[in-house]
From TrEMBL:
Keywords: Oxidoreductase. This is Uncharacterized oxidoreductase YghA. The keyword Oxidoreductase applies. Residues 1-52 are annotated as: Disordered. InterPro entries: NAD(P)-bd_dom_sf, SDR_fam. Residues 1-16, 38-47 have a biased composition (Basic and acidic residues). Belongs to the short-chain dehydrogenases/reductases (SDR) family. It holds the Pfam family adh_short_C2. Transmembrane segments: none annotated. The keyword ATP-binding does not apply.
Length: 302
C-alpha cells in the first residue's frame, strides 16, 4: 500500500484498503500527543504527497503544523511551492523538527514558531512573526485544535470547557483578525471544522459546539472578506488517524475501533485531507468561499 503510494500517488486503488483499518492497539499518550509515538504511523504525505506548483510563491501560516492534518497541509503547501511557517505547542518540538527537517531537506522554506494559541498576545505575535519570516501572508490555515473527551457534563469543568473554546474558537478569531490586514486580494483562509459540527458525540460536549461555531464563523467571515477579495472556507474531517485521538480525544476502547463505523470502514489519514486544503488555498478555488468541505469516509455532512 504505502509502497504503491510512494511510487504513484495517483494510481487507482481501493480506498477501503488503501490505509490501515481497525482494530488498532490501545496507545494512550498525554495531550497533545506526538505523531512519532503512534502505531501505525500516520501518513502525512511525507512519501506520498506530490506537488504540482499549485501554490508557487505563496506565503502560508499553518497552525497545528507539527502533526496530523496540519502537518499534512504544511507538507502539501510546501511541495506545491509555498513558503510555510508552522505553529505548535512547545511540547511538540520533536514532531515539528521532523516536518522542518523533511521540508528543508527538499529545499522548501519552512520555519517553526512554537507557542500557545490560547493566549491572545501570542496569536498576534505569531502572525507578526510569520509575516516577517515570509515577507507577507497569502494563506492562513487554522488547523490547531483541542479535543478531550468527557463522559458526562458532571466531568466537564469550566477550565476544560474554556480551554477548548479558547483553542478552537477564540484563537481563530485572534489569528484571523491579526492576519487579514496583511492578506492581499487572492489570499485564502482555510479553517478546520469537523463532522462533529453536525453530528455531535455525547462525550464531546465542549468540542462539538466549537466546530459548529467554526462553520458559522467561516460563513460569516466569507461574506465580509469577499469585499477584500479574500476567500474563507473550512474543511470538515471525519475520523482521521492523528495524535489528537489517542491523547484524550477518544477513550482507548473507542480508539481500538476508530473509523470502523464510516462507510469506507477505516479512519482517514492526514494526507487524505491535504488536497482539499491545497484546493481551497489555491487559485483553482477562485469561486469557492463560505463552504465547508467534508473529508469523512462517507459519513456525510448534511
Ligand atoms: P493533532 O493533534 O495532530 O493536531 C492538533 C494540533 O493542535 C496539535 O498538533 C497542536 O499543535 C495544536 N494545538 C492544540 N492546542 C494548541 C494550543 N493551545 N496552542 C497551539 N497549538 C495547539 O490532531 P489533528 O486531528 O490533526 O487535529 C487538527 C484539526 O483537525 C483540529 O482542529 C481537529 O479538531 C480537527 N479534526 C480532527 C479530526 C480527527 O479525527 N483527527 C476530525 C475532525 C476534525
Ligand atoms: Mg501535534
Amino acid at each position: 500500500m504505502a509502497d504503491a503510494a510512494r511510487k504513484d500517488p495517483y494510481a487507482m486503488r481501493d480506498p477501503r484498503t488503501q490505509y490501515p483499518r481497525p482494530a488498532f492497539a490501545k496507545q494512550p499518550q498525554p495531550a497533545p500527543g506526538l505523531a512519532k509515538d503512534m502505531v501505525p504511523k500516520p501518513d502525512h504525505g511525507e512519501a506520498s504527497y506530490r506537488g504540482n506548483g499549485r501554490l508557487r510563491g505563496r506565503k502560508a501560516l499553518v497552525t497545528g503544523g507539527d502533526s496530523g492534518i496540519g502537518r499534512a497541509a504544511a507538507i502539501a503547501f510546501a511541495r506545491e511551492g509555498a513558503d510555510v511557517v508552522i505553529n505548535y505547542l512547545p511540547s511538540e518540538q520533536k514532531d515539528a523538527d521532523e516536518v522542518i527537517a523533511l521540508l528543508r531537506g527538499e529545499g522548501c522554506k519552512v520555519a517553526g514558531v512554537p507557542g500557545d494559541l490560547k493566549d491572545e498576545a501570542f496569536c498576534k505575535e505569531l502572525v507578526a512573526k510569520a509575516v516577517k519570516e515570509l515577507g507577507g501572508l497569502d494563506i492562513l490555515a487554522n488547523v490547531a485544535g483541542r479535543q478531550q473527551f468527557a463522559k458526562s457534563i458532571e466531568e466537564l469543568d469550566t477550565e476544560a470547557f474554556e480551554a477548548t473554546f479558547r483553542t478552537n474558537v477564540f484563537a481563530l478569531f485572534w489569528l484571523t483578525k491579526a492576519a487579514m490586514p496583511h492578506m492581499p486580494p487572492g489570499a485564502a483562509i482555510v479553517n478546520t471544522a469537523s463532522i462533529q459540527a453536525y453530528e455531535p458525540s455525547d462525550i464531546l460536549l465542549d468540542y462539538a459546539p466549537t466546530k459548529a461555531a467554526i462553520v458559522a464563523f467561516t460563513k460569516s467571515l466569507a461574506k465580509q472578506a469577499a469585499e477584500k477579495g479574500i476567500r474563507v472556507n473550512a474543511v470538515a474531517p471525519g475520523p482521521v488517524w492523528t495524535p489528537l485521538q489517542p491523547s484524550g480525544g477518544q477513550p482507548q476502547d473507542k480508539l481500538v475501533e476508530f473509523g470502523k463505523n464510516v462507510p469506507l470502514g477505516r479512519p482517514g489519514q492526514p494526507v487524505e485531507c491535504a488536497p482539499v486544503y491545497v484546493l481551497l488555498a489555491s487559485q483553482e478555488a477562485s469561486f469557492v468561499t463560505g463552504e465547508t468541505y467534508g473529508v469523512t469516509g462517507g459519513h456525510m455532512l448534511p
